[in-house]
Design a protein that fits this description.
Elements lengths: L2 H15 L12 E3 L5 E3 L2 H10 L5 H21 L9 H4 L1 H7 L3 H5 L5 H11 L9 H22 L5 H36 L3 H16 L3 H14 L4 H13 L5 H38 L1
Antiparallel strand pairs: 1-2
Helix pairs in contact: 1-3, 7-8, 7-13, 8-9, 8-11, 8-13, 9-10, 12-13
Length: 292
């Protein structure tokens, strides 16, 4: 509701309350309204009240309404802001666990809270489908790119550096979680191979775990390479071209290459939809600053 609408509503309420009550009042006796609440008012007190509370003029009512609206807006500005809990940002299992981490983004947002929630939900959502080490690296890299886009466009200047630091830490945490998942899979594979007497496979799995510990596992090198692509600059065409070139140079089997290129195409389409969607939220922020 705009300030003008709040003011009109407040003025209307003030005028309504100034009207005389239709409930019969017996001076000096019990007063009974429609909700059956009894109030004792003395004749002297009623007379004093009538003298001290003259009916406000329309100008006074309008002034009161404006003051109420100003106080309301001031109070709202001093309170923590957040989106509706019905937002997909909180309802989608893919983003719900991370949503609480972004509370500061809402406190320093240049757009309304629900639009910020939509932007963050889209930033943390990746295309569905089969994935391997390379496609998972692509997903994290594009999450980095989309979060940085949100920071650039919709976070106030006084908080942008903190927001960038947060994004870097968030992306690093996602990488650590991915490493933990790979490590758990390799441990299970090694144990199964050992139980079946497949010593060669068990040894390969243990070597892969050692690579994870050293930061040289294929999943880690792929992720680092993809993150480096989207870390700087805003040329998304260059990002996707470099990722595509990396896929082509990987020497993977044809069906793996096809899977990775298909996923890259889905990421490129998602990026286009993401930026198009957020342009609608970006424009009001520009217009608002122009009026300041």
């Amino acid at each position: 509701m705009s300030i003008q609408e709040v003011g009109a509503a407040a003025a209307s309420q003030s005028q309504y309350e100034a009207r005389p009550s239709k409930t019969p009042v017996s001076v000096g006796k019990e007063v009974v309204n429609e909700s059956s609440i009894s109030v004792s008012i003395s004749e002297e007190a009623l007379a004093r009240g009538a003298q001290s509370q003259p009916t406000p003029t329309k100008e006074q009512s309008d002034q009161t309404a404006r003051e109420m609206a100003s106080l309301r807006n001031s109070n709202m500005a001093s309170q923590a802001r957040g989106p509706s809990l019905a937002s997909a940002f909180y309802g989608d299992p893919a983003t719900a666990n991370d949503a609480v981490s972004f509370i500061d983004f809402f406190q320093h947002s240049t757009i309304n809270a629900d639009d910020m929630a939509t932007a963050l939900h889209q930033a943390l959502t990746s295309p569905q489908g089969s994935g391997d080490e390379t496609t998972l690296g692509m997903d994290v890299a594009m999450t980095q790119a989309k979060l940085n886009y949100v920071v650039d466009k919709f976070v106030s200047a006084d908080y942008q550096q903190q927001a960038r630091d947060f994004v870097a830490g968030f992306v690093a945490k996602k990488g650590e979680q991915a490493d933990q998942t790979v490590r758990a899979v390799l441990n299970q594979s090694a144990a199964l191979a050992q139980s079946l007497g497949d010593t060669r496979q068990a040894n390969r799995d243990r070597q892969a775990i050692e690579q994870l510990d050293a930061g040289t596992h294929a999943s880690q090198t792929d992720r680092k390479a993809m993150l480096a692509i989207t870390a700087d600059g805003r040329d998304s065409n260059s990002w996707f071209a470099q990722m595509n070139q990396r896929v082509e140079n990987s020497g993977s089997l044809p069906f793996i290459t096809a899977l990775e290129k298909s996923h890259l195409g889905a990421l490129q389409q998602q990026w286009s939809q993401f930026t198009t969607l957020l342009k609608a939220a970006e424009q009001p922020a520009v217009d608002e600053s122009a009026r300041v």
